[in-house]
Amino acid sequence: MELKLYPTQRNSFPLQAIHIKGLSVSHWLHEIQCMQLDLNKVSVYPLPGMQLNSISGCLVILHKSVLELDIRNNIWCQKIGKHLYIPQYTGIEPQIFTEEADELFARHPHFMHPELGLIELEEEVKWEESIFIGKEQSIEQIKPKAAPFIPERITHFRISVVQEDSIEHILEDLEKKADVDKLKDEPLSTSEKLKLSLYKTLMNNADPENIIKEGEGLPKLLRYSNIISSIFKEKDKNGDKKDWGDRLLEDYKDLTNRNKSQLDKLLELLKDNPEKALDYAIPLDGEGTARGSDLGAFQMSKFANDLSSLSKLLKSSRTSGGSGYYTMEDDALSLLRKQYRDSADKLVSDKKYIQASYIYIKLLKDNYAAARMFENANLYQEAGDVYQKLIEDNLRAGECFEKAKLYDKAIEMYKTKDMYERIGDLYSLMNNKKEADVFYQKEIDRHSSDLQYIKAAKVSSEKMNDPNYAQSLVLKGWKEFADPYNCLGKYFSNIEKEKERGREIKRIFEEDITPKNREGFLRILQKEYKQTESLREMTKDIAYTIIADILPQNKNIASELIAFNKEDSQLIKDTIRYKLSRSK
């Protein structure tokens, strides 16, 4: 019999050998390693070349067929019977069946190749004789330091608070920059005070500005010309004698301005330059409890260094009318407070929020106003600092820190309020599922202890992505008679497949129905009967069984049959007659 190979478009036999071309054994081994083949699971036979005593490659026979294998540039071979191999996409003629191949090539594997011919593979490659293993040498290996990991995309980031950015630090820094020089202040001497008192009497306490502009008070002054002339004997700086009236008015104006109270000077400075005025401003008692009669007795030195930090401010704000405040009359207090707020509004309109917060927090003692201002300006970190440190409202502080994406600080605030679900949400945003699940579980435990199993199940399914646990929670609510109707209804509604839901209805009826819960279960059956057409027959049969059990003790239960037979008018009439007959 003469066997010949011919090309085909498809393989007629399974692929279970690989033809590797090459003269080097090391090349064969390299290819086998690259194909990730185990030498213990293959047999390798050398193939002769076209010349005498030469080698052209090897045939790797797989003990088991592996279809999903990258054989690189090598060639698959088909297996006919147990021992005959031919290249892929070739056929053999005359046609040979596997039984014939097994009979013809029973002794050794054979490889038939269009160039090499029919080769009997008698001996496998002996790797221990073909590969030289040199003397083992000890080489010191130095492991390079791991290179920095550069992600391909950013999945999340975290914002951390720098201490220098906190409202407490900012206000402290604002204080430290303040100078302590006093405003120019030349108090009147005794004689000057007497002179000013005389002026006021002569001019009916008229404002010197009005006198200069409108001539107010001059007629009365003319009647006292002799007295006035005796007062003004000096000349002006140029040696020229000035009109006594002009010199009188100038002197009156100068004495009046120098006699202004420190409060008046502060109010003027707040109107003209509110930022500069902050250095000299007076802290007020926010509740208006500090009062006294020493209006204007204080010196307008810069106040800032008297208030070293927010922590000191917190301590002083708990006392009323202490050394941190200056006392003044009611009208002056109201006037100064109004001017403070006007100055703060101006600073806010100029977007100078830190300076405005200085007025609210340190001068007006209105911490809520400062917090609201920061929130309206979307400065949520500063608002959170005020709520936390000055107002001690950790809930509002946490909400502000969360808006600022300062999740660590928000979590710290929420922990004081046992807001476990909210904390879990923030840990989820930080891609920390492990910590998130810890707090979700705490929320579930709290709902369970309050017998609110539906809420607990919602956290489990929506936040922890654990629907099986959620099902066990609502089923527990049914068994413990904690809102049993809604819990069991939720349990069944979570089962999407109707057949599976039907099996659960039947199982619960057989295992969990008691005289205490069977009427509630009957209501669930009515709901399922109405909604699921494929379960109507089963739910009706179970309902009839339950009604029959209850009927001897409660005749009114017969009316429940109507829910399962709304189109049966005769049944409705019979039910009414039965109830009436039992009532006699």
Structural description of this entry:
The protein has helices at residues 25-34, 98-104, 127-130, 167-176, 190-202, 208-214, 218-222, 225-231, 244-258, 262-272, 274-277, 310-317, 330-349, 353-363, 367-376, 380-391, 394-403, 407-415, 420-429, 433-449, 453-462, 467-479, 484-493, 498-511, 518-531, 536-550, 569-583, and strands spanning 4-7, 15-21, 42-48, 55-62, 75-80, 84-87, 90-93, 110-113, 117-120. Strands 3-4-2-5-6-8-9 form a 7-stranded mixed β-sheet. The chain has a two-stranded antiparallel ribbon with strand order 1-7. The chain is of the alpha+beta class and 584 residues long. Helix 6 packs antiparallel against helix 9 (244-258), helix 10 (262-272) runs parallel beside helix 13 and helix 22 runs antiparallel to helix 23 (484-493).
Topology, pairings included?
Blueprint: E1 4-7, E2 15-21, H1 25-34, E3 42-48, E4 55-62, E5 75-80, E6 84-87, E7 90-93, H2 98-104, E8 110-113, E9 117-120, H3 127-130, H4 167-176, H5 190-202, H6 208-214, H7 218-222, H8 225-231, H9 244-258, H10 262-272, H11 274-277, H12 310-317, H13 330-349, H14 353-363, H15 367-376, H16 380-391, H17 394-403, H18 407-415, H19 420-429, H20 433-449, H21 453-462, H22 467-479, H23 484-493, H24 498-511, H25 518-531, H26 536-550, H27 569-583
Parallel strand pairs: 6-8
Antiparallel strand pairs: 1-7, 2-4, 2-5, 3-4, 5-6, 8-9
